[in-house]
Design a protein that fits this description.
There is one protein chain. With 269 residues, the protein is an alpha+beta fold. 22% of the residues lie in helices and 39% in strands. The protein has three helices and 14 strands. The strands form four sheets. The chain has a five-stranded antiparallel beta sheet, with no helix packed on it. A four-stranded antiparallel beta sheet has the order 11-12-13-14, with no helix packed on it. Strands 6-7-8 form a three-stranded antiparallel beta sheet, with no helix packed on it. A hairpin with a 5-residue loop joins strand 13 and strand 14. The longest helix has 45 residues, at 2-46.
Length: 269
């Protein structure tokens, strides 16, 4: 007993070491056994034993499909159906409700667009008392702000003189019977030839004016000869014309300045 009491720590450590040695000796067998089990389990997932499918009985669905193919059913979801395509109604200016497929600006169309020209013509030649020629030009500004300003006006000038519209550079042909005059436009600096024929003036498109039509009221509302800056009223909503081209009119709403484009209706009468 005295031996055990004196050396129990060494005896205990020896027992632990013997246990560790035994565990280390058993570990390779345990690892091999677990590896074998894992391989078997993996093999079952990769190559499972699947039972072959039996022939499916499709008698019921095939019978239903054959019956459905023999029945002709036509559904109209555009004209008569009002659940998915409700009718649109617009209150006209007289207070009456009008059924329509288009409302507001969608019912506005551009029926005509007319170019506005700057026209310059060499109308006549006069001879002064000293024998020098004076040239009479006709100037027509169709895009002027008022009708009087848009009407044709004649100016008399000599070669080398300038007016509000052009600088008279030279004359071609005989001074008294010229073929055409060469002028330089003040606004663009462009040099152009003006024939000596008042019925065949030189011309340039400066702007456009448009005719618009609103089809909701009966009779329709028509705005004729509208220019940039003009205002139209569509059911109480005002729109300003901000641009006109040869094929469209651009409107801007007064309340939020949102832009709308209305194309020229080429089928309009």
């Amino acid at each position: 007993m005295d031996f055990i009491k004196k050396h129990y720590e060494k005896i205990l450590l020896g027992v632990v070491l013997i246990g560790l040695i035994g565990a280390l000796g058993y570990l390779p067998f345990k690892i091999s056994d677990e590896k074998t089990k894992l391989e078997e389990t993996s093999g079952n997932f990769v190559r499972p034993n699947v039972k072959p499918l039996t022939n499916l009985d499709l008698t019921v669905p095939e019978t239903s499909l054959t019956r459905a193919m023999g029945v002709s059913v036509a559904y109209n979801f555009s004209d008569t159906n009002r659940l998915f395509n409700p009718m649109q109604w617009q209150r006209a200016q007289d207070g009456k409700l009008v059924r329509t497929t288009s409302t507001g600006l969608k019912a506005v169309s551009v029926t005509n667009i007319t170019p506005l020209y700057l026209k310059i013509s060499l109308d006549a030649v006069t001879i002064q008392s000293d024998g020098s020629p004076l040239y009479i030009f006709g100037i027509e500004r169709q895009n002027a702000a008022t009708k009087p300003l848009a009407q044709k006006k004649q100016v008399t000038t000599k070669v080398g003189e300038k007016n509000a519209t052009f600088y008279f550079k030279e004359i071609q042909g005989l001074p008294t019977t010229p073929t055409n005059a060469v002028i330089q436009l003040i606004d663009s600096g462009e040099t152009v030839n003006v024939p000596h024929d008042k019925d065949k003036p030189w011309k340039r498109i400066d702007a456009y004016m448009a005719d618009l039509r609103y089809d909701i009221p009966k009779p329709p509302k028509i705005w004729a000869n509208m220019r940039v800056g003009g205002v139209i009223d569509v059911n109480g909503e005002k729109y300003k014309i901000v641009a006109i081209s040869s094929s469209e009119v651009i409107l801007a709403a007064f309340n939020n300045d949102k832009k709308f484009t209305v194309k020229l209706n080429k089928n309009s009468a």
